[in-house]
Give the backbone structure.
Amino acid sequence: MNHSLQNLSLTALATIALAAFAGSSAHAQATIDQNKAVNGSVTPGDAPGFPITLSQRGSYKLTGNLVVPAATGAILVTASDVSIDLNGFTITGANTCSGYGATVACKNTGSAAGIEAAAGVTDVQVRNGTVDGFEKAGLWLNQRSTVERVKSRFNKGYAIVVRADSSVGNSLVERNGIAGVYSEGGLVFDTIASGNGSYGIVVANPADGALLRNNVATHNGIHGLSGQAIRITYMDNQANKNGQQNIASGNLATSALLPGNVCNGGAC
């Protein structure tokens, strides 16, 4: 191959690469707002109205608040490897809750989640915003999910549900009917669980164990941190004024309550 042909080939390859990158970036910057939800076609198969269906892997970003009708989900994720940046905005459902801790009472009936991953859909990431007021949960996700910097309140069931090998961090879960965070294994860290009807943060049956680190659980109706499982490590958590136990575990013999945990101002 002569020099000019080689340069032409390199140029062509560079053009293809840039085009692919541009297409990927365009998809990575896909945006969601109320008007797009109403009109549909955010991704193929997305019908007008709620829930918005995300049927393609990639990254999505809110550019405005979403207000969702009663007993209806906001976003249904049907493809794995999806990242949702709430971008500081709020997704609001119609459910309301009154009271605090053991007295929390929530209004609506239904089974809708604010952001829900369909069965078998994994590796969903949600960051940087608020999801309030749904019946089933604010977020209902599956394995290998990541939740960061999310505030979720006034849900009739749970604020955040994740399955095995997931991470929830730097979040606030407050005044939900059942629990703040429900995890089936992985990491929950730097999260505040306050005034939830039953549990602040609960871990159930993780196959590979779980770590609860540097969380605050206060004024929840039953337990602050609840490990209904084996192989849970509690590290540098604060649990105060919860209804029954600040830190409870179904099998403390196989869990590790490390120094640094504080309950009602003293050692746990």
